[in-house]
Amino acid sequence: MSTIELPLPGFYDPANVVDDSRWIKFSKLLQAATEWRIAHQLKAAVGDRTKIGLLLIDNQNTFCHPNGELFVAGADEDSRRVVEFVYRYLGIITDIHCTLDTHRAFAVFHPTFLVNEAGNGHPDPFTAVSLQDIKDGVWRASPFMASALKSNLVSAQAQLEHYTAELEKAGRYQLMIWPFHGMLGDKGHNLVSGLFEACTFHAMARGAQTGIQIKGLNPWVEEYSILGPEVTKLADGTGVPRRTEFLQQLLDYDVLIIGGQAKSHCVAWTIDDLLRDILARDPQLAKKVYILEDCTSPVTGFEAQGEDAFERFRKAGMHLVKSTDPINTWPDFPVL
């Protein structure tokens, strides 16, 4: 074991990582974190000479729990590896940022947004909706959606046509109707229990507030990437901004480590956005990005897209690594 790798704390139980029925005892966690800090002579994160950021994308019950609305096969085991990685390298991880896919009943990718030509049926989950579908009236804006979003139906229909056109123009995925997921207020929206516990333990032991980044609340656009929406301007000219301040925060780390769900979608699109900015600034910055390839899985049916994206990242200079390999053996990893 390397000197920078810590043991797993005694309270850790891998069976608890995706247990959505448990309550974390935060007062006991604080006591354990204080004792851990003393036992392992941990310093406040603000003093880290090498700043290491850990970006964990959408490790929520909705994706990672087997009963989740959009469970990604393998995400439960991915989550356990992520949690154990946090505990082992708690002493050198400066900051942890967790993203939360966050939705309500009416959103462009939920069945409620669209109705069929007769007006009495919604698209099934995993229906791909093209611009031609909208033009042909196969699917159209729902009047109940327009009511919920305080829009008139003509404007909502114009936005739907604009949106699907912009997706196709940019060569992105077609509009996909997903099962209801990441619903704000429901337990599916929560981080898996064991990860929230590990992040809070890190916060208490190292004096580093866990970063929480919300994406997906704008009902008119998809946000696979935490750094920005799929389409940045609505039909009426309203802009949907990118998260430039958070992007800069990520780029300021000496090392940026990324994992989460799903490999084919939110992880891939976030790293794509990050890479685009890296290439525009300095391609050498790609070398400080490490992707935990054993802590992410693709949506079933989109495996090839995930593999293609990760190969593109590797060719750009980013590192594909395993969470179980000693961190100081990773290529180009700085001496701590």
Topology:
Elements: H1 26-39, E1 52-57, H2 61-64, H3 75-88, E2 95-101, E3 114-116, E4 127-129, H4 131-136, E5 139-141, H5 143-148, H6 153-170, E6 175-177, H7 193-206, E7 211-215, H8 244-251, E8 255-260, H9 266-281, E9 289-292, H10 303-315, E10 319-321
Helix pairs in contact: 1-7, 3-7, 9-10
Question: So what's the overall shape?
Answer: globular
Major sheet: 6 strands, parallel
Strand order across the biggest sheet?
7-2-1-8-9-10
Distance between the termini: 15 Å
Tell how many strands the DSSP assignment holds.
10
Structural class: alpha/beta
CATH class placement of the largest domain: Alpha Beta
Taken together, the total number of domains comes to 2
CATH superfamily of the largest domain: Isochorismatase-like
Taking all Cα atoms into account, the compactness measure Rg is 21 Å
Question: Can you name the CATH architecture of the largest domain?
Answer: 3-Layer(aba) Sandwich
CATH topology of the largest domain: Rossmann fold
Question: Mean pLDDT across all residues, rounded?
Answer: 96
Which parts are unreliable, with pLDDT below 50 for 5 consecutive residues or more? none
What is the overall number of helices? 10
Quick tags:
single chain, 336 residues, alpha/beta, Rossmann fold, 2 domains, two-stranded antiparallel sheet, 10 helices, 10 strands, 13% strand
How would you describe this protein?
This protein starts with 25 loop residues before the first helix and ends in a 15-residue tail after the last strand. It has a six-stranded parallel sheet. Strands 3-5 form a two-stranded antiparallel sheet. It has two domains: 238 residues, Rossmann fold; 67 residues, no CATH class. Helix 1 crosses helix 7, helix 3 packs parallel to helix 7 and helix 9 packs parallel to helix 10. With 336 residues, the chain is of the alpha/beta class.
